[in-house]
Amino acid sequence: VEVGSENYLIELEKGSSDLPFIRTSDIYNNEIDYAPDYFVTADRAIAAKCPELLKDDIIFSKDGKIGQVGIINADNSVVPSSGFAIIRSNGTVSSDYLFAILSHKEIVINQAKMKTVIAATIPHLKIDKINEFNIPIFSEGVISEIESNIKVFRENISQKQQLIVEIQDILNSSYNQLLR
Questions:
Q1: Which pTM does this prediction carry?
Q2: Is the pLDDT of residue 1 over 70?
Q3: Three-class SS of residue 40?
Q4: Which residue stretches of the chain are H helix?
Q5: Is the separation of the CB atoms in 61 and 83 below 8 Å?
Q6: Helices then strands, each counted (H, E), the chain
Q7: Of 67, 72, 128, residue with least CA distance to 96
Q8: What CA–CA distance (Å, rounded) separates 17 from 85?
Q9: What distance in Å separates the CA atoms of residue 48 and residue 68, rounded to the nearest whole number?
Q10: Which of 12, 60, 130, 164 is surrounded by the most beta carbons within 10 Å?
Q11: What are the C-alpha distances in Å from 152 to residues 29, 88, 96, 145?
């Protein structure tokens, strides 16, 4: 599903109800950039039948730089590009554990690279190949430790995002006062 680049809005064009459009380059160090370069209207996202991402959904890049992984935190409405596979835990393991495993180079990223094909000039990983990944299930103790650390990681990201919003608000207010 793709919204089409002609429908992208830049920061200055976006309205309050427009949604961040997340490209594969908008994930860095397993963090989703919720203030990306492009946005789309909610109406356009619905018309393009973009998937609705839920809290704890994982996005895994399957085009370009294969294996970039991000996890959706609460209240983060975004529109993913077609370069992502959306992975949702089936309950066998938690989303936090799955996120950690999918982020691990030796366990998953190398599997992904071995299953990647080059489509013209861009690396591509087919969805059915992602379903073939071998995901190890470690002991309850290891899983619990991983989940605990991922929880802290996600809380830190949320706090960082909130601080950025607060800083932007302060700057906007100060700048507007300067203009008066």
A1: 0.82
A2: no
A3: strand
A4: 42-47, 95-102, 110-114, 127-130, 140-179
A5: yes
A6: 5, 10
A7: 72
A8: 25
A9: 24
A10: 60
A11: 15, 20, 11, 11
